[in-house]
Specification:
The chain contains seven helices and nine strands. By secondary structure, the protein is of the alpha/beta class. It has one domain: Vaccinia Virus protein VP39 (Rossmann fold, 3-Layer(aba) Sandwich). It has a seven-stranded mixed β-sheet, with helices on both faces. Strands 1-2 form a two-stranded antiparallel ribbon. Helix 3 runs parallel beside helix 4. Pfam families: Methyltransf_16 (PF10294).
Length: 233
């Protein structure tokens, strides 16, 4: 896939920050609904296995609800395939990481803040995924040593604000692993994130045809981050 230069990254960041494009709501999308009708019991049928993931949502936290970007990324990896060990940052309900587990990942670790961990642990236990583990991680002061060495890092809809975006970038720079980060277009933290990771990573936005054809929307972006060689940083 083509990799973006620093100037391209800056241009993408600026475009996303000022984007006024209306959100596109197709049949599978849930964020078009009001909070009172949108959250409850969520089911996701994995392909090609047919396994059904079940998640009980709560309005108590952004981390206990399923967001559209997580669904789009889960379907994207069903199309692309996955292998090896995977670390999910800001896992929330754990949909993306659990879907990657069902798709063929060898081992998945889902990380979240301590307040969200109990909900995440119950969800993993309910879905009987033996190769999935939950761990607590605070991006602002957590010890990252145990999270090194994964084959792939993923994160979805975690660029809500500058604070989150910069903290996530700090973690990724330390881990220095191939990464996919998904976001809804126009999130406040997108530009800050792209500028923060650019010195350590080659960054590219996945093209529309990379997505599952039934789960591609112009207002959902997925960035691929490839670590730069040490000589280029």
């Amino acid at each position: 896939m083509p990799l973006a230069s620093a100037s391209v990254v800056a241009a993408v960041a600026e475009k996303v920050q000022r984007s006024t494009e209306k959100r596109v709501f197709v049949g599978w999308r849930r964020e078009k609904d009001t909070d009172c009708t949108r959250y409850g019991s969520f089911e996701y049928r994995c392909a090609p296995s047919g396994k059904i993931l079940r998640i009980d949502e709560s309005y108590s936290s952004t981390g206990t609800r399923v967001w559209d970007t997580a669904v789009a990324m889960s379907r994207l990896f069903e199309k692309r395939g996955v292998r090896g060990t995977i670390l999910e940052l800001g896992a929330g309900t754990g949909l993306l990481g659990m879907a990657l587990s069902a798709r063929g990942a060898d081992r998945v670790v889902l990380t979240e803040l301590g307040a969200v961990v109990p909900h995440l642990e119950k969800t993993v236990e309910r879905n009987a995924l033996g190769n999935v583990r939950v761990a607590e991680l605070d991006w602002t002061d957590g010890d990252l040593e145990e999270f090194r060495g994964f084959d792939l890092v993923v994160a979805s809809d975690v660029l809500i604000c500058e604070q989150w975006a910069v903290a996530l970038a700090r973690v990724l720079v330390v881990l220095r692993t191939e990464t996919y980060v998904g976001t809804a277009r126009g999130r406040d933290g997108v530009g800050y994130f792209l500028r923060a990771v650019e010195p350590a990573f080659e960054v590219s936005a996945l093209p529309p045809d990379a997505f599952h054809p039934d789960f591609a929307c112009p207002d959902i972006l997925v960035f691929h981050l490839a670590p730069r060689s040490s000589s280029s940083t």
